[in-house]
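Chain entry —
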Amino acid sequence: MQRVNVKRHLTVMNRLLLAPVLLVSIAAASPRAPQAAAAAAPVPAVTDVSPGTLAVSPGTPAVPPTPKLKGPKLVEPHLHVIRSGIKNRPRIALTFDACMGKADDRILSALVRERIPATIFVTARWLKHNPQALKVMLDNPDLFELENHGQNHIPAVDKPALIYGIASAGSPEAVRVEVQGGADAMLASGVPAPHWFRGSTAKYDLSSIAQIRAMGYRIAGYSVNGDGGSLLGAAVTEKRIASAQDGDVVISHINQPTHAAGEGVARAILDLKARGVEFVRLQDVEDMGDDQTTQ
């Protein structure tokens, strides 16, 4: 009786030991073997790292990053006026964007008082809220050339993009509306028909440049960024503008009366005048723009 029990015991033990081998053999023969093997693969160990992040043990394949969608290729054209070639009489064009908000009287008063000609790019939105400043400009046609800055200050790019956080027009039709809407508002305000256009952010794609040129406009780039979008301090702004050289086109803003940059612009106007600068408007002289903006 004792012998039979031992034999039974050994038989059961052998079956238990062979069971895993049989299961593996059956799995290997199955058409779903790769999937089963992958499902049975050990989960990589998670290591403790900085809060909010996880890292896997060495040797674990890295997960490829999600590809970023590419926006349109943008250009920011340069513009120069023909140099005077006179050592102590550099020729410089002051241009100002009147995007939205109120007119900066510190700058406007300095231009009128010192009889400094300038080119002002106005939006329909700015025209609507600044009739008094517009009247000053229209009353001084020998000083101010008014040009088109668009209807709603939307970047004139015909594909979807975010530029400095501002959504672009996004289509050729929207570019057309932005450009034409600005011109229509100027005519309705008694401003002569514009010949130049400068879009919000001064950035474009090449196809929108071609479209705006086909609408009959020259596109105004610049060569000196005077006030960094009216975000620079007074001292830095003054230094930038005052350092302009023969043939430079300076861009600044005349619509931020509470920003320190406006004080720097007003002082730089006096600095340039003291240097003997010949101030010109874009309509007064020949110019050279890149990216097919003026050719």
About this structure: Residues 2-29 form the longest helix (28 residues).
